From TrEMBL:
Keywords, ordered alphabetically: Nucleotidyltransferase, Transferase
Identification of the protein by name: Nicotinamide mononucleotide adenylyltransferase
Any one GO molecular function term: nucleotidyltransferase activity
Length: 191
């Protein structure tokens, strides 16, 4: 059985994520979907991983507020709704924590024999690819695109939700329904 790994923050599943997840699932029999930034206090690299002077923790992304609006549990539900909504059986995937900021721990969450699928939009994508290769994963780059070629970002969708602009067309129907029924739309309005 071919196993693969998709990974990301998934701080709101949008249709760009759907493209990525389906491209990953197309390449394997069983897909592990790794959610990074499960714990906001552990969402930093030490400087040795960030190729900078050792001055304490270093964020790998912007710390714009709010950077952690959804819990691991909420993101897991969004991923499940998305994949099942796309016709993928729950028996063909698992959603797991993915501690990308503590790279030696990854082997405890996903099999190192599985193919690691990545997409590259920026320097972080390049660095992440190199990091996974150094850890011994077989990395497959699905595509390289500029940031301007992205479908959207979770930040854009969250900003639209907060400012009462149309956003539902940017996310899978099951995710929109989950966000509305669970009260998470209201939570974002208050951030």
């Amino acid at each position: 059985m071919r196993e693969g790994i998709a990974q990301g923050r998934f701080h709101l599943i949008h249709k760009g994520h759907v493209e990525y997840l389906l491209a990953c699932k197309e390449r394997c029999d069983f897909l592990y979907v790794g959610i990074s930034d499960c714990d906001p206090q552990r969402s930093y690299f030490s400087r040795r991983h960030d190729e900078a002077v050792d001055r304490g923790p270093a964020p790998y992304r912007s710390l714009q507020d709010p950077i952690f609006p959804f819990t691991f549990y909420e993101r897991m539900h969004m991923i499940r709704h998305t994949l099942v909504g796309e016709g993928i059986s729950p028996a063909d995937f698992a959603v797991v924590p993915f501690p990308v900021h503590t790279p030696p721990l990854l082997k405890y969450y996903v099999p190192t024999s599985a193919a690691m699928y990545v997409t590259i939009y920026d320097d972080w994508g390049e660095r992440k690819t190199k990091l996974f290769e150094e850890l011994g994963f077989c990395v497959e780059v699905l595509w390289r695109r500029s940031m301007a070629e992205r479908f959207t970002t979770a930040t854009e969708v969250r900003e639209r939700m907060r400012s009462n602009q149309p956003w539902e067309h940017l996310v899978p129907a099951g995710v929109a329904q989950y966000l509305q029924q669970s009260g998470l739309c209201d939570v974002l309005q208050k951030l």
